[in-house]
Amino acid sequence: MQVTEYKSADAFLDANRDLLLKNEPANSILLGYANQQSQGVDSAMSTKFFSIDDDGRSVLPAMFTPNVVPLLSDGPEESARLLARFFYPKNPQPTGVSGPTGIALAFADEWEYLTHCDLEIQMNSRIYSCASVNELKLADGSHRQATIEEFELIKTWRLAFRDEVDGIVLTDDDHIRAQIENGQVYLWTTDQPVSVAILGRGTDNGGTVGAVYTPPELRNHGYATALTASVTQIIFDSGKKYAVLYTDLDNPTSNSIYQQIGYTPVSDAAVWKFKPAI
């Protein structure tokens, strides 16, 4: 096996698209970032794409964005270990890894062996896919796209979401502003905004719903459920065949809510942190 580093997202997609499309919902982030870079989206331009190849055939596609941990697809565990060894002499080095549970653990275990770091699980997540939205009685209010005048509110909620989930969440001003201007940020509103969600990366046949957040004082009214269902339907209305989202397995409430909407589990994933040994 050997590592291939691609010079462009187009080259990566040419070599890996068929493999990734075998489980498109589980690979939605990889496909989405590659599609965005291919289209020239600024926030995706710094991402580097890789694959582990065996006899000239890709067996594990992956990507690495500076200041974000590498993201691996599913594949042989030895291929994840080989990728860890490939990254070890590089700069910048990964500060963690994300991917299907077993693959992420194989990379993390190899990284611990190479660097003598301490491993810490950051998040156990579950990937869900939805093919149609169930009929639901939605909360009072309606959805709409956020406006740039609401930037400060969106940023405040994004930072709160990041702190609450302790996950990989992009929070820089340019990224948030671009999402608002591109019409990706949706709000559920009553007499005021009460919940937010992001219509995220698109793949060939799907779209993603992410960063769903309701401030604690506004919870338990069904706002997040209503907004998630509405944004999911927007994905279908655009001609896509499915919607996908990630949940924190430690949050049984959100996992239950999404299944009520019509989401079903696809696979489990994990994010590991690499901490310098004391």
Overall description:
The chain is α+β, with helices and mostly antiparallel strands. The protein folds into two domains: 2-125 and 271-275, Aminopeptidase (3-Layer(aba) Sandwich); 133-261, Aminopeptidase (3-Layer(aba) Sandwich). The chain is 36% helix and 31% strand. It is built from eight helices and twelve strands. The chain has helices at 9-21, 28-38, 77-87, 101-115, 151-165, 173-181, 223-237, 252-261, and strands spanning 2-5, 48-54, 57-64, 71-72, 96-100, 118-130, 142-145, 185-189, 193-202, 206-213, 242-248, 263-275. The strands form two sheets. An eight-stranded mixed β-sheet has the order 5-12-6-11-10-9-8-7, with helices on both faces. Helix 1 (9-21) runs antiparallel to helix 2 and helix 3 (77-87) packs across helix 4 (101-115). The radius of gyration is 19 Å and the shape is globular. The mean pLDDT is 92.
